[in-house]
Specification:
226 residues, hypothetical protein yedk fold, 4 helices, single chain, mainly beta, globular, seven-stranded mixed β-sheet
Length: 226
């Protein structure tokens, strides 16, 4: 499961994802939680662009989103089997820009938050799926979900699942073209190499989705307040 992540603008987002002039007024977020509105990369009508979407998938056939389960994650292994995700796999795949994510390790009665990121790259993309729900006034509400896979050796001590971090060479394939074959899915949606990642404990302040500052990603030992 992935329930929190970050998006930090160390690098130019438009340049990184080859999008011209992404004028969406977005800023760095260090504690992104479900229901928040974040940038997502989509490919529609032969063009790649950035759209602000809500994290937590609301299927377009939903009649009452207040009573609907907003899926924040979807398992890579069962995407093709579930009718909802199978249909989105055809042409509603997306890239979710990110800089890292959080996971919690159980130690007795406590849960210690860890921040997990790539060692070298400040920006990467989660694999995602999206849909657009229309309300009674035909207003569009785009939403997305993050795809998860089995945890690699780094994340496994914290949780048995992790979000799919796409290798840069797989981003265009995931975003464009026909739905990937089952063999492609196994390759593209597998765990990211553990040796290229790092994880360290951070402040429990991240537990509150209202807290959003750069102190959240600092290693715990450097903080005065745990």
């Amino acid at each position: 499961m992935c329930g929190r992540y970050s998006l930090i603008f160390i690098d130019d987002l438009g340049k990184r994802f080859r999008i011209f002039d992404p004028t969406l007024g977005i800023r760095s977020h260090f504690n992104i939680a479900p229901s928040q509105m974040m940038p997502v990369i989509v490919h529609q009508h032969g063009k790649t662009g950035m759209v602000i979407m809500q994290w937590g998938l609301i299927p377009r056939m939903t009649k009452d989103p207040e009573k609907s389960l907003h899926s924040i994650n979807a398992k890579a292994e069962t995407l093709a089997e579930k009718p909802l995700f199978h249909s989105l796999l055809q042409n509603q795949r997306c890239l979710v820009p990110a800089s890292g994510f959080y996971e919690w390790k159980k130690e007795g009665t406590r849960k210690i938050p860890f921040y997990i990121r790539l060692k070298i790259t400040p920006l990467f993309a989660f694999a995602g799926l999206y849909d657009v729900w229309y309300d009674a006034n035909t207003k569009a509400h785009p939403t997305y979900t993050l795809i998860t896979t089995a945890a690699n050796a780094l994340v496994a001590p914290l949780h048995d699942r992790m979000p799919v971090i796409l290798k840069r060479g797989d981003e265009e394939r995931w975003l464009t073209g026909d739905a990937p074959s089952s063999d492609e899915m196994k390759t593209i949606l597998g765990p990211y190499p553990a040796g290229e990642m790092e994880a360290y404990p951070v402040s429990s302040r991240v537990n509150s989705p209202d807290v959003d500052d750069d102190r959240l990603i600092q290693p715990l030992k450097t903080l005065l307040d745990p």
